[in-house]
Amino acid sequence: MRMSVLLVFLCYAITAGAFHNRVFLGSQSIAISSARSPISVLHAMSDSIIDEDSSVSKFSGAGPVQVDMNIYNLPFETVLEEWTANMVPATPMQEEGIYLGAKNSREHLVDVVQVEFPRLQDMGLGIQLMELAGGREDSLGITIVEGLVEGGSAENSDILPGDCITKVAVRKSSSTSAPVDITAGMDLTETVEESAVTTECLGYDATVSAIVSLPPVSSEGETFVLTLKRLRRKPKINLTLQYPPEMNEPDVKLELFAGENLRRSMLVKGVKLNDALSRRFDSGGIGDCGAEGTCATCAVKIVQGGNLCNPRAQQEAQILVKRANWRMSCKTIVGYGMKEGSMTVRVSPRQWADGS
Ligand SMILES: *[C@@H]1O[C@H](CO)[C@@H](O)[C@H](O)[C@H]1NC(C)=O
C-alpha cells in the first residue's frame, strides 16, 4: 500500500504548488468533520515555546521511564498500517482537535519524541516525507517521515522512518551582556527566540507549506527543534500465577501491559484472590479494604520478576516488614518504568508450606 514517494524539501525556495503527484487515499481513516476550514488547520506561527506533554507518562501508570523506549519501536511496514487520525474532544491535557492515534490502541501507543539539531545554512531540513492520507479540501491528512536526506540538517538526528512530525521550531539564541550589579560585574543573559509551526494531521502539501513558512536562516547557530510522534508497542508482562498446592489448581498465565495494577488485572481476568486464611492486618476481621492498602488480604508472593514492579511505599513496607518478597497486589504496578519481562506470583501465600 505504498502510495508514492513524495518530495524532499531541500530548500525553502520550493513551493507547495510544485507537487503534482499527490496521493489520494480517501478520507475513511480520518474521522473528522469536513466543515472545518483549511485556515483553522494550518496552524498559525507561534513565537512562544510550548511545553510538550512529556512522552509516555501520560499513557499509563508505569511511572518514570527506565528503559530506552526505542526497544519498543514497530517495523516501518506496521507503522504504515497503524497511523490514524482521531477527532478528540477537549480534556484537561489538551484542546479539542484532530490528533494522531494508533489503530490498535490496545497494543500500541503514540509516544512523543523531541529532537534538536543544527540548522544548516544551505541544506534545509532534509527530511523526505510521504503522505499516508490526504488530498482533502481541508488539508487534513497523515504525513510521515520516509527517510532522511544525505547532507541535510536532519541527517544525523534520531528521526526514524514512520515518525510523524507534529511541530517544527527554529530556535535562535543570542547572548547579550548587560550590567546588572556593579559589584557582581557583567551578567550574561541568553535570549531564546523561537518560531514554530504545528503540522499534526496535515496532508503533504499543508505540511510542506507550514514548514516553508518558517523564517529563513538569519544567523549562525540556529537549531531545529522537532516534535515527533512515534508509534510503539506497549511493553508486556507475562505473568504466571501459582495457587497453593492443596488447591489443585493449574497455573494461570496472564498477559498484562506495563502500568497495570496487579490486583485489578487479576480480578478483571477472574482470578481467585480470596485468601481464606488471611485476617485483615488492620482490624483482624474478615473482608477486604477495597484496595486501600491497609488490610493485606490481597498479598501475593513474588517468586520471580519483583524488579518489574514499582517499589513498595512506606505503608506497604511497614505492614509487610517481615515478608521481603510479598506485595499487596492492590499497590503493585507491573512493568514499572515501562520495563517488560516475565513474573511468577504465588496467590494466597499464607497457604504455602514455606509461607513466608
Ligand atoms: C511472553 O510470552 C510469549 C509467548 O510465550 C513470548 O513470545 C514473549 O516473548 C514473552 N514476552 C516477554 C516479555 O517475556
Tell me what you see in this structure.
Mean pLDDT is 79; it is low at 1-58. The longest helix has 9 residues, at 204-212. This protein has five helices and 14 strands. The strands form four sheets. Strands 11-10-14-12-13 form a five-stranded mixed beta sheet, with helices on one face. The chain is mainly beta. It has two domains: 2-164 and 199-219 and 228-233, no CATH class; 236-351, Roll (Ubiquitin-like (UB roll)), CATH 3.10.20.30. Strand 5 (127-133) and strand 6 form a beta hairpin. Helix content is 9%, strand content 31%. The radius of gyration is 26 Å and the shape is elongated. Residues 236, 238, 340-342 line the site of 2-acetamido-2-deoxy-beta-D-glucopyranose (NAG).
What's the total number of strands? 14
State which percent range the strand residues make up. 25-35%
Q: N-to-C SSE series? A: EHHEEEEEEEHEEEHEHEE
Bound molecules: 2-acetamido-2-deoxy-beta-D-glucopyranose
Helical/strand content category: mainly beta
Calculate the mean pLDDT score and round it. Answer: 79
